[in-house]
Amino acid sequence: xxxxxxxxxxxxxxxxxxxxxxxxxxxxxxxxxxxxxxxxxxxxxxxxxxxxxxxxxxxxxxxxxxxxxxxxxxxxxxxxxxxxxxxxxxxxxxxxxxxxxxxxxxxxxxxxxxxxxxxxxxxxxxxxxxxxxxxxxxxxxxxxxxxxxxxxxxxxxxxxxxxxxxxxxxxxxxxxxxxxxxxxxxxxxxxxxxxxxxxxxxxxxxxxxxxxxxxxxxxxxxxxxxxxxxxxxxxxxxxxxxxxxxxxxxxxxxxxxxx
Length: 259
Description:
By secondary structure, this protein is of the alpha/beta class. It is built from 13 helices and five strands. It has three domains: 130 residues, Response regulator (Rossmann fold); 46 residues; 58 residues, Orthogonal Bundle (Arc Repressor Mutant, subunit A). A five-stranded parallel beta sheet has the order 2-1-3-4-5, with helices on both faces.
């Protein structure tokens, strides 16, 4: 089957602040029978992606207000777009940017100017992979979160989990999930009844219990892994939370496993 035939009747969402820059590509996609939806701002793109559930998303990295990386984080948390292939488009790409894009779950990363025929070929590859892949999702495709803030919350929680040893400052974290510090704090209070910093501390201690129970890592190594400055600070925080030292907790778990 030719690339043009494979594209016919597919639905692609293009999120780009200046779609006129993609005129040649968009014309070729339309000529191939692709149904195109457009968004020129990140928030608009997020809303349309959740409402329309396209088969693939072309996303520009250099978006105003919320960049493409932040938007990708949100798209990966929203059930309708959790498994949708995302192809980043960038006018100026570095190795670090490409690696960041792939780390966020992008299917591909293309640097402008590009050859439209190559873009179409790559789109075909990712559409075919999506069609042939047995997808697993905890929530059904097409489910829209009741509140857009929940998507931001999920993205922030995942970011914290990935950087638990050294999470970004509040303002940086908010920017990385497409909002601002005051709004992010309000979201955490609304859904979790705690501040962002309180959540980070609670998550560090929860992770420490998991590591103590299921690994042979030393107390110092665990403290380092979860972002405490010293084993002593970790032990104090752990005892305040659980009523026992990390060593006592580990020994208790091991005794229970032997019973």
